[in-house]
């Protein structure tokens, strides 16, 4: 307490000192000028089985590979060592058969091992002999040859089991013994060092029949890396079909429920909705391992599970029923994402045959009926049988996941029409982004995704300001700053807070958002940056988690107008650098390439000399061709570097689905610069993107509608000066951009009608305090005392960690200096929310 008081006092002194600095700008807020409403649905969460987010994460099961199904692989797949190869299928867009390789385990029985003095004393092997459930046919045959020292079958869970002293754990085991087994079977809870923390005898009646045993166990001590063992003290054969260990204390005490501390973290975000089951798992690597919701219903011991797109088997434990129940428990709406008969287009990209579309549509309609159908319907009755006769809060259906192209558009229209006709109250979402809605007839919402570096979010807070209204709303279903930010530092969080300010300001268009991915078990990071980290006994939020929480808890009813939304960027110069060509999922040719200086003289260079290549490139008789469908390709020309030149060439698209790239201003290592992305975003849009760490890092210019025809030559000219670049095609100016510094301060303001408070949100991503004068217009009274909630750190490179989980977390304090005009200095590297009573 003393340490906290001293820190608080120091912070108050710093704040007092900062407030004496002369304001840099004046933020004028007019409470009479009402802006867009901010929808109650604005902030939700997106769950996907990735990074062991469910199994070994949110789902409370402690036993890994409880049904012994882990080595089952999708139909047509095969393994070589630790690599899984998918079935060879035809990509429906390119016609190619792609090669793929994914994680596989070489463990003979994943998650399980036999502890014997000599390997000859006992053995185990998987079998499908006489399964208890045909849907989960594998069981483990344990043959004990010598039990002079008892044999233990041990499961260490997901990198350990968190066993808490005197808490209760429900063991469920389905076993049968052969007639030759005369010994006892004992369940043990063990410490990391194999000390017995609890034991319970398992009673088996008869031989050759399955026994479904339920037993409560209470450990005598706490161990975060505990284990479960079945101990056999006699020779013979035992078959084990299913072993589960569940904490009695799950979230809201639900059976087959959720890990309490993790679920509480999610509930702490006050999500308006939950999106499930993904993400790429919806489509699968190919259709053979897509997520199948019907297989997630019923007895957990009968659930088949499925090899997840992200490299391990999902048990289907956190299933459709459990997701819907969680939504009801936390007062959130549910969003179901259906498959339209397309495998992941970033992976194998197969498509079901035309006559199978109806199957996928029926599957989606059944999912809706299960959630909200009357108990007299087939699937509504199944929901009632499983303990929930009342409808669940399903409100949203996303039709497909990250699909695009003509085939998707055709299928979307089929699904949209059928669902709307039967369930007009549901909100239906397409996978389209801001580049256009392709050939579909109508959608309620679109779903753009962004995984970018901090500069993109800082530079694009106005991306929605001039987007057309009236045709659809926007759900930003996946977004995160995940490039060049470590595991997720404060700079990432501040850039997201800035981007959120733009989404709130455009609340008449953007109605829903969800950060992705949501969860990460620290032992299996498949995705570079995730919102919440967990271990067996600990869960922590990154600074981005607290940005999400602060935004949701301080959502205004509507925006009020202000004179500033961000600090003014300053003009800057392009760096001198290399140029080059490229494409995305497109085959393309470049010819007649020439470069001239500002005075018109030719620049000598050798097109055959490249500084970097990615893709399949060939140069012959001055024709540079790229023949692969990689994403992306690049051919960076060596021997020239400049920021004042004109590049001219002819370009022809010969196949694929987008346009072409022209890189310029690339650094010596080719990792930083700019690129004209021509007819990108599914052959619909042209814009300039930044390049960071060698990859495209987000749009910095205006977006222009544009598409390219196959086998048509285009005359292309790019004019670069230190202060501006321009792209011409067939003599017409398409897009231009003058480089600017990245703004580092962002402002948004809104009014909370329930509390009568003005809410001012300020991001300061600079290393210095930012003094600001705030002037309120259109008010009759402002109370002097209000509230300040601030998230900050000494450096924007800092991160939370398991050792310091609250290092970067919101600090709330009372402030007594509010008025119709007041000065406030915002700390370096901070996200601050002011709440003040204003009539």
Automatic annotation (TrEMBL):
EC number: 3.2.1.55
Top-level taxon in the UniProt lineage: Bacteria
Segment forming the signal sequence: 1-22
Occurrences of domain Alpha-L-arabinofuranosidase C-terminal (ranges): 477-830
Top-level class of the enzyme under EC nomenclature: hydrolase
InterPro entries referenced in this protein's UniProt entry, alphabetically: Alpha-L-AF_C, ASD1_cat, ConA-like_dom_sf, GH, Glyco_hydro_b, Glycosyl_Hydrolase_51
Family annotation (SMART domains): Alpha-L-AF_C (SM00813)
Catalysed reactions, as listed in the record: Hydrolysis of terminal non-reducing alpha-L-arabinofuranoside residues in alpha-L-arabinosides
Listed GO MF terms: alpha-L-arabinofuranosidase activity
Keyword set, alphabetical order: Glycoprotein, Hydrolase, Signal
GO biological process, one term: L-arabinose metabolic process
PANTHER family: ALPHA-L-ARABINOFURANOSIDASE 1 (PTHR31776:SF0)
Family label: Belongs to the glycosyl hydrolase 51 family.
The protein, known as: non-reducing end alpha-L-arabinofuranosidase
